[in-house]
Fold this sequence. Notes:
By secondary structure, the protein is of the alpha+beta class. The strands form eight sheets. A six-stranded antiparallel β-sheet has the order 14-3-4-6-1-15, with no helix packed on it. Strands 18, 19, 21, 25, 26 and 27 form a six-stranded mixed β-sheet that branches.
Amino acid sequence: MMSRSDTPKGMITYTSRDYNSIMKEFWGLVPKLTELWKPEADADPGVVLGKYLASIADMLGVNLDWLANEVYAPSVTQRKNAEKLFDLIGYKLGWYTAARTEVTFTNNTDRTINLDFGFNGSNFCTLNAYTDITQQPRVITYNVLPLTNTYGYQDTRSKRQIVTEGIQIFADSDIVSLSPGESCTRVAVEGELRYYTVSVSDIKKNNYIIKLPSQHLDTTAVWIKTKSSLHDDKFIDTQWSQVSSAAEFTVPEPRFSVTYDNYSNAQIQISNYLNQLENYNDNYLVVYWMECTGVIGCVSANVLQNLLFAKQNQQGDINTVDPKSNDLGISNLANTSEMPHTNTVTGKSPETAKEAYLNSRNYINTWDSLITLPDFNRFLLREPGIDCGVVIDCQKALEINLAIYKDKNLTKDQKSKMYITYHDFPESPDKYKRFKWENILDIGFDPTAPDKFIFSANFKTYTAMCFPIYNEFNVSEYPETTYERVRKTTPAYKKVASSNANYDYAFIGYQIPDDVKNAIIADYRPLQAMSVELQFGFARIFPWYVVGEIYPRNPVDKTTADNIISRVKEALAIYFSPANRKFGQKPTIMEVVEIIESTDSRIRYFDAGSLKYPVINWGELERVGMQEILVKYDIEYFNPISFARYQDLGSNLGIKRSNIRIAPDWLIE
């Protein structure tokens, strides 16, 4: 018999998981546990029992491994498990996406033609392509949506606009008059229009859920209409609006959303506002959707043809043009890849668990993820030596630019200086001084113009850009710290004609040393929370100093005056140090006055700006040869990735007196 210490609990070790290892260990145990042992006899009941137990254990081991793998993101295989797992970080698995494109219709005749892209009650105008992206023969149908010539400009990579928002998708009339050579554009969506009718009473019985007979649908292209009877051709005026989730059912309005069951099947959830509609129980809801083919539905440029109007040859010379002739030119944009600032959408098929894992690692949700920008800011600020900092992603940068763009209190020139540009977060590892800032400052911004949106190409959506300050800008420890002025005009340096000559710059570009960057990245990785790539941009630094006169309660001698000024400057340095301030925070006159007046009980009040300089001045002294030159910075370039750095000029301001002084009338000679 085996001793107690030699026998594992349950006799079979936990490392024996497959059939062969379990059988081998079992055969090793049997001779020690019984006197009768004949392994050569397969008919022996003990042998049969051993093989049976090994088979069962092998099955259980495989199932345990499979279940354990489904708990971890790198090994999850089932989509329904991936949905629950990645939902913890706010990542939603992609579903079918119907490919969309812009189609332009051009009048090639010498007469005015009238076209009607309206819905006829059961169909939209359609176009066809006859090969897919794999060059296989296939009929791909695109539906021309009425009144959609301006649709799409609110779409972003992180938010897709629901088709029903602000659009009469079932407009029965969309008449366009085209003069010779004139064009019009409409959005076309790939797929076959399908519908499913269900009674209101059945919806209530099914807990306000509508099970659809098809799963190949784009969740943003779903519509609901109401009719009073099953065979009625007319619809009731009740407007059912689609929302992104059932959480938005709080408003008492006819609303619905697309949700998923436990098997990842899309379904329609209806708001319980259905109960509040009077005389509505005998009505029917008709759900319309586009049954799309996902990736296969993408097309190349100018391949859509065979235009079929939903309304044929109406009176008044509407739709009488022959689409098969050259009288009506038809062209479309390719939607096989993303094209910013257009209405094209690349078709997508449902995301697998493995694809979700890869994509989720490049994902950061600015609003509702467990790993949000505030979390990244918190992690950055806890790093040794980091006094303050800010982290933004591409979406946040775009939001900042849009907020500046829409600010009516700023002039166009002021806005152009404040915009975040791609040089604030360069992708390449080149040193700061190699970038030609004078070519990109004052670039302007227009969310609809590609050449004014250039930062999105370099600042990828899976990048978190960090702007930290290390050890109060201490460059002695790391001489390679990037700290260089960004010039407003070229050349950067002019010949100094006198000690009062000024150098004008936009701001100072500052980036922490490479050794510190690598240390921060190394600290982030073990957290298992890094769903994005960390990069480090160039913070905009604006040095500033204070000018003013201190009035004491009683006259003071020079020694006492120097002591008071020394304490005031120390208080200002501590209060406005990087460790106590934030990015995007400008100093105010009231802050300066309150700090100075509360520093010493001997101070009666501080007269801000009693000299010819304002109380807050944006600049610093630079020594050029034997001279000290006052360098000025343009505060209009200050934005949320900027930092106001307090500095003391000492006793020299180019006018041979201290920037902060005791009022001369209160000094005792």
